[in-house]
Amino acid sequence: MIVRAGYIKKIDAALSRSRIVVLSGPRQSGKTTLAREFVDEGSINYFDLEDPASLSRLDEPITALQSLSGLVVIDEVQRRPDLFPTLRVLVDRKRDVRFLILGSASGELLRQTSESLAGRSERVTIGGFSISELGFENSEALWLRGGFPLSYLSPDEEGSVQWRKNFIVTLLERDFPAFGVRISATALRRFWTMLAHYHGGIWNAAEPARALGVSESTTRRYLDLLTDALMVRQIQPYFANISKRQVKSPKIYIRDSGLLHQLLGIDTKKSLLEHPKVGASWEGFVIEQILLTQNHDEAFFWATHQGAEIDLILRLGDKLSGIEIKRGDGPKMTPSIRGALQDLGLEKVSVIYPGTRRYPLAECVEVIPAAEIANADFCV
User: Fold this and answer.
1) Which of 122, 186, 203, 367 has the fewest CB atoms nearer than 10 Å to its CB?
2) Whether residue 91 is found in the same domain as residue 175
3) Are 157 and 17 in a shared domain?
4) Are residues 270 and 312 in the same domain?
5) pLDDT at residue number 378
6) What predicted TM-score, i.e. pTM, was given to this entire model?
7) Under DSSP, is residue 313 helix (H, G, I), strand (E, B) or coil?
8) H-type helices in the chain, by residue range?
9) Are residues 46 and 163 in the same domain?
10) Cα–Cα distance between 327 and 374 in angstroms, integer?
11) Which domain, by its residues, includes 56?
């Protein structure tokens, strides 16, 4: 069993500060396993809303919950959004109870928690396995299979591929309708596959709208839906007060590299290395690893219409740090890095590559091996 110590520490800290902690993340990302580190699933304090017995216990939620003390876990809470006002009342009345509520991310879940539990809750968002949890020696398998535990831990490649196929079908045909989504699973599958081909590129609503025969506003709605479900990451552009024309649309990434490869029809390491999207795939994989492990307040990218670009900009407080990702053996100084340092006031730029040697490129510019992502501090 892989112990996810980093998330356990985050949840512990959140529970020490807040009466209600919302643990959100994609389906099958390990939320339930983490919750069982805090409350045994056989305890009277554990409710799984996919279990008819738990649902039955909550027919009268005040009666079921008000006698409990300590930590109470409610899993799959998005199935009963009417519970949020009840939780608010209980934490206001009782000082001896805290709640850890788990939900697959959706727009509705985020809206309910922000409106009903404002000032009473804290959110912890989890993803799949990371390099920091598995060790860099396992990063190639993690890149190919993705971080969903059952995909990564599958005994063979065929089993991993089949799990990802089933995950995509289940999300589109069962989970989204359960969230209240009234969009054809076929249309969403086509759109998601198109996004895989845009992975690492600038979003342009017009092209997928034409291909699907729908309006641009409809494709934006599809994009936001997949973003809410933590399947897609939109990285917004950073704007500086400079004379150069800057890109204003977000960059699009499929968050899990294994799902990206499934949507692109990539099922082996050989087919990945031969695929035209191999560079973009590795870039997205590294960005996701950085955002999972690095302390930051906001993340952006920067690009100008003249061709200058920085893959990732992290803001922590009033400091900005740039990150460039190069899948080559010996990264070199580029005009984009020089321009970004001059135009954006970056504290430094880190260049991530798959090699093993760490070395400076110039003042405030350092090349860092991908093996050191988990321990490097890019914002200092």
Assistant:
1) 186
2) no
3) no
4) yes
5) 75
6) 0.91
7) strand
8) 5-17, 31-35, 52-57, 61-65, 83-93, 107-116, 131-134, 139-145, 149-152, 157-170, 176-178, 185-198, 206-212, 216-228, 257-264, 269-273, 278-293, 335-344
9) no
10) 18
11) 5-125
